[in-house]
Amino acid sequence: MIQELKIKNFLSFKDEVIFSFEATKDKTFEDYQVVQVDRNVRLLRFALVYGANASGKSNLLNAFDFLLAFWFSKTNEIDEKTDAIPFKLDINTIHQPSYFELKFYVNSTKYWYILELDEQRVYLEKLYFYTSVQPTLLFERTLENNTSVIQFNPAVVKVSNTAKEEICLKCLTNMSFFAARNQVNVNLPEIDKAINWMKNNFMPIIEPSTKMFDYAEHQILSNKNLKDYLLNFVHHADFNISDIDTHIVKEDIPQNVINFILHNEDLPDAEKERIRKEKNIKINKTTFEHSVKNERGAEKYSLESKLQSKGTKRIFGLEAAIYEQIKKNTFLAIDEMECSLHPDLVEFILKKFLEEKNNRSQLLITTHYDPLLNEIDDLFRKDAVWFTEKDETGHSNLYSLVEFKGLNRMSSFQRVYRNGVFGAIPNIKE
């Protein structure tokens, strides 16, 4: 589980900001929205971020997504960029490195990861873990004479000089230690626990433009339980969908299209060979069975997925992702959660997620739907609410609701937010 993320000089975050899932002493919804990961550490399963357009909400989510992509991006080109983007509205920060710290738990073991890099190279990368109050270094990677130098803690990490040299050789200055380590056959148990958590417990960000229904189709094909879960969800959400059928069909394609497809480097060689021989592509086809009542009584009709609304298809995609998240105890970030969804559906999705007991999954969303603020202490906790606000210099600030005083005297958090007490609203000029 994630404890906190520290960001500096990345996208709109010029100065250091800290986002935290750590719970306050408040005991609201303690049984299923808070997880005790350590004797003195309790982590939230849910957080949401408010803010005006272009205030930095999405950039917070992009910071998590950047780390996930960077950790495992393998490159053979030394001049390929790292994709780290500094704050570009200040001449002093454009050429300075971005900085990240991530603290997380793998089961009950705490890890602390540090990364400093610019668009061309990594200057510093460290990983610690905790066996006591003080952190123990696992590895440190620095830049010397434009070469990555990696040092392991010999008291904890047992690695041969040959394996160490091979990792150093693989670790180009523009890639992560983890991407290099994955290319070397060596056993590094304490480091690999962190790597496996990064791989298996960190899901890619969901944006409004993400093709979530394609994802749902793919998942349904391999998991019948997911289909049952989705049908149960839409039944309770008052859709008239009674069944869904997803299967693979083959469509013939002309030779010029085949030639184009065969140049796709991401396509597996086996699939390229199949396309070359069969001259067709495999596509997912989904139909929805709708139950209706009319003067003839109850009837059922099948409709293709292209006839479903954007909201219906987004619901299936989001719930497919949340299903996987809950089953695998992962972290998931959703940007503009309410996109194409009725507000009641947004609340229903969150309610179902938050009612999951004995679960270590974490959900972080951004939203403009401020009526949700009136659900504080009824649906979620005060310490789950965060705000982003951009000042006149163009950089984003990030702060928590619990930093404000007098919260227990507020009868309507939505009204207080609309009145500008919390900031994070657009400054519309008359």
Q: If you had to describe this structure to a student in words, what would you say it looks like?
A:
The protein is an alpha+beta fold and 430 residues long. It folds into two domains: 1-203 and 332-430, Rossmann fold (3-Layer(aba) Sandwich); 209-329, no CATH class. It has twelve helices and 17 strands. The protein has helices spanning 30-33, 57-71, 161-170, 177-181, 189-200, 212-222, 224-236, 255-262, 269-278, 310-328, 343-354, 413-418, and strands at residues 2-8, 17-20, 34-38, 41-44, 46-51, 98-106, 109-117, 122-130, 135-144, 147-152, 241-252, 280-294, 297-304, 331-334, 362-366, 385-390, 396-400. The relative contact order is 0.16. The mean pLDDT is 92.
Biggest sheet record: 7 strands, antiparallel
Alpha carbon gyration radius: 24 Å
Give unreliable regions as ranges: none
What is the approximate shape? globular
Count of helical segments?
Answer: 12
The secondary-structure class comes to alpha+beta
Determine the mean pLDDT.
92
| Straight-line N-to-C gap | 45 Å
Number of domains: 2
CATH topology of the largest domain: Rossmann fold
Percentage beta strand: 25-35%
Instruction: Give me the side-by-side strand order of the main sheet.
Output: 2-1-6-7-8-9-10
Order of helices and strands: EEHEEEHEEEEEHHHHHEHHEEHEHEEEH
What is the CATH C level class of the largest domain, in words? Alpha Beta
Helix residue percentage: 25-40%
- Counting DSSP E segments of at least 2 residues, the number of strands comes to 17
